[in-house]
């Protein structure tokens, strides 16, 4: 029996705001993984691990859901890509074997944060890199008065930084905002000077910097820092428009209207 989609995991048939945000995070990861051994912990459907396998030496995609892993194994087949069942507190890879650990939108789904960090440290090589993201509780939940039933323990920005800093000497924080695309803004003294606007032909207004998601790149060795980056959401928007169009043309209302109008279309063609 096919498992019902809950809306929490991103899959490749979904095109939405989440799509651009997730793809942007993997775009950043691509700059650190060339010819490296990668662990994608809580890989979900597996598309991210598959994307990274185009650049990496080898990729392990690990997820706690066995059914999801079985599907990924059948969908993405490459010599340098392997999917495994496992949890963030018991990662099924050897110690000191991973160059880069990727963990996107995982922390908030459990409360074993310290155990997860210890496991990540165990599998990482001494100078390995961790790239990890989580929603900022302030913007994601408090500001919107929103409760995600799938989230067990969300973190505020300072809590996220404190957690990572306990285990890594060097860290860079990126703040992610959605702009009909996605922006990843480096945490520095200029971040509060960046202005966001929205509007149409009748009005343009300044809006709060809704930096909903946090991404940290961390290591016990110095690494190349990220600049502010933008992910163009045009292609995703095209898919959304096409899906809406298809939903409309496949509807019974559209088909009935087309059927009722067909005689008039035929007459019009004859009279031309």
UniProtKB/TrEMBL annotation:
GO terms for molecular function: S-adenosylmethionine-dependent methyltransferase activity. It holds the Pfam family Methyltransf_11. GO terms for biological process: methylation. The keyword Cell wall biogenesis/degradation does not apply. The keyword Transferase applies. It comes from the Bacteria. Keywords: Methyltransferase, Transferase. CDD domains: AdoMet_MTases (cd02440). Residues 39-132 form the Methyltransferase type domain. This is Class I SAM-dependent methyltransferase. The lineage of its organism: Bacteria, Pseudomonadati, Bacteroidota, Flavobacteriia, Flavobacteriales.
């Amino acid at each position: 029996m096919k498992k019902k989609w809950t809306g929490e995991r991103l899959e490749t048939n979904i095109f939405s705001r989440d799509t651009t945000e997730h793809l942007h995070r993997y775009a950043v990861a691509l700059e650190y993984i060339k010819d490296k051994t990668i662990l994608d912990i809580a890989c979900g459907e597996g598309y991210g691990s598959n994307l990274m396998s185009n650049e990496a030496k080898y990729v392990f995609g690990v997820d706690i859901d066995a059914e999801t892993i079985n599907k990924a194994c059948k969908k993405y087949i490459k010599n340098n890509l392997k999917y495994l069942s496992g949890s963030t507190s018991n990662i099924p890879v050897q110690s000191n074997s991973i160059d880069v650990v990727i963990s996107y939108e995982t922390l908030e789904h459990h409360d074993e944060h310290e155990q997860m960090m210890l496991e990540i440290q165990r599998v990482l090589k001494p100078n390995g890199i961790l790239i990890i993201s989580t929603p900022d509780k302030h913007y994601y939940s408090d500001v919107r008065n929103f409760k995600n039933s799938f989230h067990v323990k969300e973190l505020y920005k300072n809590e996220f930084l404190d957690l990572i800093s306990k285990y890594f000497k060097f860290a860079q924080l990126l703040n992610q905002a959605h702009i009909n695309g996605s922006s990843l803004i480096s945490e520095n003294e200029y971040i509060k000077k960046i202005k966001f606007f929205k509007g149409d032909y009748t009005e343009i207004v300044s809006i709060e910097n809704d930096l909903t998601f946090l991404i940290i790149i961390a290591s016990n060795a110095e690494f190349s820092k990220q600049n502010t980056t933008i992910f163009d959401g045009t292609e995703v928007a095209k898919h959304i428009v096409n899906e809406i169009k298809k939903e409309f043309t496949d509807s019974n209302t559209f088909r009935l209207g087309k059927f009722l109008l067909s005689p008039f279309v035929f007459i019009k063609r004859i009279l031309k």
